[in-house]
């Protein structure tokens, strides 16, 4: 009897798993049409200076408005796009859309308009055409390169081959800022910090979340965060904290010298219209 139940449960898990695989397969197939049908769109999350809490940048985060499955978060499709080869097209769409929106903000708000920070998948960086395509997109929109920041995960920096180093140097020379995303989530070899053109380090969420506790754990985490911030500053790198959800975290990060932050405490990712409203409501 127990054995039967075990078998049923396994059958259940198999069904679950295969339906999940079917969904992934269906999503992967639908992705090409989704690009042509404009089902992807970009939300922006404010990045604020910790000294005065003004929004000076936004991170572009892609979403998929699927006709039957509704709004899908990037964790549902980015790795699929990486597998089926469409990630390049998605990242190109997000970069172009972000540049256009940034240009509109600049036309309306001048120097108060935020820069756009755009995520790039790992494999993009080893593509020899990347730097040229990024430069062409930014120039065609009429944006200055310094209005754009590119986010690459720590993992990407750890796996650089000769081509990626060349891409990064070309992009940096062109004038876009380079940020390390999710810093501190993986095994880190700090040597690359000195060898690659890095402007911004984005401190991963778990560090920030753990700063909320009390006692010895908290002070150890604060010590680590403080050391990362000092190291970055000594190398001329600015630090943005991710996933700041509470006032307390924001205050502690500011006290440790962290430059900027993003997170639900300040603002959730939101449509471009809302960014315009935020700029309209902010004091000039
Ligand atoms: P990420 O680049 O580290 O982006 C930050 C993620 O944290 C976003 O999730 C954002 O919505 C979420 N977040 C922001 N503030 C908070 C907070 O206070 N608390 C918590 N718990 N979460 C917060 P999202 O939008 O689901 O994106 C997930 C990941 O997908 C991104 O992580 C990025 O790696 C990837 N991604 C998003 N857009 C793109 C894109 O256009 N291209 C590529 N290649 N990857 C993208
Ligand atoms: Mg990011
Ligand atoms: Mg530079
Ligand atoms: Mg991140």
TrEMBL record:
Annotated organism of origin: Antrihabitans cavernicola
Domain EAL, residue spans: 24-283
Superkingdom of this protein's organism: Bacteria
Endpoints of the signal sequence: none
Protein name: EAL domain-containing protein
């Amino acid at each position: 009897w127990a054995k039967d139940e075990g078998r049923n449960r396994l059958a259940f898990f198999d069904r679950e798993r295969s339906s999940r695989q079917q969904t992934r397969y269906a999503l992967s197939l639908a992705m090409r049409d989704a690009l042509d049908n404009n089902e992807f769109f970009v939300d922006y999350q404010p990045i604020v200076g910790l000294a005065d809490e003004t929004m000076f940048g936004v991170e572009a985060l892609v979403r998929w408005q699927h006709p039957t499955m509704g709004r899908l978060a990037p964790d549902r499709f980015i790795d699929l796009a990486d597998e089926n080869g469409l990630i390049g097209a998605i990242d190109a769409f997000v970069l172009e859309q972000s540049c256009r929106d940034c240009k509109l903000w600049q036309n309306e708000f001048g120097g108060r308009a935020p820069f756009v920070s755009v995520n790039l998948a790992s494999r993009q960086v080893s593509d020899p055409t990347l730097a040229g395509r990024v430069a062409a997109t930014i120039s065609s929109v009429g944006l200055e390169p310094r209005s754009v920041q590119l986010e690459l995960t720590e993992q990407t920096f750890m796996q650089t081959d000769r081509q990626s180093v060349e891409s990064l140097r070309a992009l940096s020379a062109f004038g876009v800022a380079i940020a390390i995303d999710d810093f501190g989530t993986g095994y880190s070899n700090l040597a690359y910090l000195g060898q690659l053109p890095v402007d911004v380090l984005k401190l991963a969420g778990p560090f920030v979340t753990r700063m909320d506790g009390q006692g010895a754990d908290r002070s150890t985490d604060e010590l680590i965060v403080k050391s990362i911030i000092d190291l970055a500053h000594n190398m001329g790198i600015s630090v943005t904290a991710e996933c700041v959800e509470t006032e307390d975290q924001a205050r502690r990060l500011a006290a440790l010298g962290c430059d900027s932050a993003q997170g639900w405490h300040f603002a959730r990712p939101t449509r471009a219209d809302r960014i315009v409203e935020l700029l309209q409501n902010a004091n000039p």
